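Morning run. Coffee first, then this:
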Amino acid sequence: MNTNRIHPSKKIILQQTSFQTPHGIISYSLKRSRQRRTITICVTEKARVQVAAPYYALQKDIVSFLQEKSSWVFRKLAEVRQANFSLAQRQFEHGHHFLFLGKKYPIEVIEKNMQQPQLSFKGNRWKIIVPDNLSFQNRQALIKEELIRWYRVQAEEILGGRIFHFARMMGVAPKKIAIRTQKRKWGSCNYRTQTINLNWQIIMSAPEVIDYIVVHELCHLLIPNHSRRFWKKVEGVLPDYAQRKKWLKDNALDMTLP
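And here it is:
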């Protein structure tokens, strides 16, 4: 009898465990599933390590896989913690900067004896007037809420025009377009329903990067996967798409609100 195998009584098993590597101890959650065929590992936004494995995978094979990836895991953990630290330093306060169309602009905060906040964009800064009787936390929450509302209005106006422009150029016609909050995606496309969802936060990126995201999702109306044929289609519309894609990767942290 092989005691290294787990005999399932249900389809999924969740475990919390850890092991020693040359770089230190890695604590991780392990999810075993009958549907899975390979071992994968990811580091979450909260700097937690998650491992997914086939139901019958040997524990020694999982540990061996983690040992092999340990350098990557510790490097990724360091990146996530640094990103979280940077976000914690960014506040919705006077003088702090945020992106709009690829450029950073400061927030000017003015406190007055009033009931409702007022936010406007002056071309080189946001100006927001807030009630003067708010606590620090409530003022932060209010400014964030108003800024997000402003971003969403800009997204509705600008993204619709870019979708129309490229859809006509490419000869495609999405049946539905939605501007949404998508925590982990800049955009998505449902090939079956011909629906495109765009994250309002892409309005922070440079105009040429917005176009890349729009074209990317429009191409998915024709090709649902990320095959070579898909990327050839993207390249046919935007020959320099790789540079635009790199900008998005390099500036993703600045496009994340604290």
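The helical segments are 59-89, 136-170, 207-220, 228-237, 241-250. Good start to the day.
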